[in-house]
Specification:
- InterPro entries: Aldose_1-epimerase, Aldose_1/G6P_1-epimerase, Gal_mutarotase_sf_dom, Galactose_mutarotase-like, GH-type_carb-bd.
- Keywords: Carbohydrate metabolism, Isomerase, Signal.
- It holds the Pfam family Aldose_epim.
- It is a single chain.
- By secondary structure, this protein is mainly β.
- The protein has a domain of 225 residues: Beta-galactosidase, Chain A, domain 5.
- The protein has 2 helices and 28 strands.
- The strands form 8 sheets. Strands 10-11-12-13-28-22-21-16-19 form a 9-stranded antiparallel beta sheet. A 5-stranded antiparallel beta sheet has the order 18-17-20-23-26, with no helix packed on it.
- A hairpin with a 3-residue loop joins strand 10 and strand 11.
- The longest helix is centred in the first third of the chain and has 16 residues.
């Protein structure tokens, strides 16, 4: 009886915490587009693209081995959550009850706390190497979470993040934390990349990067990328660089809206992004300091850029922000679509 109980507890532990899942790597390839992943954190570990002359380069920052991602504090390529970005004061009120979250950045919570979705082993629900891969994670707190990476045509990558709370209202805000460098992951900084953000407003933050609750227009300021310009052209006017949530123009919902266009002149590569989310965090890797990456790369400040489509940061503490609360019977759906070209 004792042995049977021990076996049941062990199986339950494996299901709940994914301890029985083996960490592996997976590859999707179609045409000239090749993307690799690991089920640790559902991380995108590489993405190979041709330049205008057909030369292939890996355009995402990362590590050579899974162990690098286990010890990572940069969130390279990971799916972050349950609540991406920051929760001010590591607490929020929901339906009259105060909830405490894990303060892993001073007094605040960042990307789900010390052990968010980026630090767990996901199972693989479906895998077709020429088409798609679906990772699944059953949270100990009662959500079923899935992320699907899918190749569309020969130059598009779709990312679909889904979640369903089981028995109680839950804040959910997942994000893909890929660091991009369209020249190549080990080529230096991204300050000469040009970017256009189809977003005329931002949610300003305090010194701890917690939103103040305001939504302000950015026209004419260093945050203004309504027309394409080099990332480095006004970055010195900001403390450290860009790390801010932009309010994507238009109405968020089921339909995808064009969010950003990034280009790199010397290779001719261009990346376009669409999403159904209300915001996008534009981050210029301000905190990278000699991180030892793959292929002996050493990633320094501004080595990559992140475009994390998302719900607004700290929306659980700002009633004027779009809600991130998902109730039982409802579903969370977050879609990103990337198109890659070279001219």
């Amino acid at each position: 009886m004792a042995k049977r109980l021990m076996l049941v507890l062990l199986l339950l532990c494996c299901v709940t915490y994914s301890l029985c899942e083996e960490i592996q790597t997976y590859k999707l390839t179609r045409g000239n587009l090749s993307v690799t992943f690991t089920n640790y954190g559902a991380v995108m570990t590489s993405l190979l693209l041709p330049d205008r002359h057909g030369k292939q380069d890996d355009v995402v920052l990362g590590f050579d081995t899974v162990d690098g991602y286990k010890n990572d504090t940069t969130y390279f390529g990971a799916i972050v959550g349950r609540v991406a970005n920051r929760i001010g004061g590591a607490e929020f009120e929901l339906n009259g009850q105060m909830y405490k979250t894990d303060p892993n950045e001073g007094h605040n919570t960042l990307h789900g706390g010390a052990k968010g979705f980026s630090d767990v082993i996901w199972s693989v629900e479906n895998y077709v190497p020429t088409s798609h891969i679906t990772f699944k994670y059953d949270s100990f707190d009662g959500e079923e979470v899935k992320v699907t990476y899918m190749l569309i045509g020969e130059n598009k990558l779709a990312v679909k993040m889904e979640a369903k709370p089981i028995n109680k209202p839950t804040p959910i805000n997942l994000a893909l934390h890929t660091y991009w460098n369209l020249h190549s992951h080990n080529s230096g900084d991204i300050l000469s990349h040009k970017i256009q953000l189809l977003a005329g407003k931002i949610t300003p933050v305090d010194k701890k990067l917690i939103p103040t609750g305001e939504i302000t227009a950015i026209e004419g300021t260093p945050y203004d990328f309504l027309e394409p310009r080099e990332i480095g052209s006004r970055i010195d006017e900001l403390p450290g660089g860009y790390d801010i949530n932009y309010v994507i123009d238009g109405i968020a919902g089921k339909h995808l809206r064009k969010t950003a266009i990034v280009s790199e002149e010397s290779t001719g590569r261009k990346m376009e992004l669409w999403s159904n989310q209300p915001g996008v965090q534009f981050y210029t890797s301000n905190l990278l300091t000699r991180v030892a990456g793959k292929e002996r790369a050493v990633y320094k400040k501004h080595a990559g850029l992140c475009l994390e489509t998302q719900g607004f940061p700290d929306s659980v503490n700002h009633n004027n922000f779009p809600s991130q609360i998902v109730n039982p019977g409802e579903s969370y759906l977050h879609v990103m679509l990337f198109r890659f070209t070279a001219h």
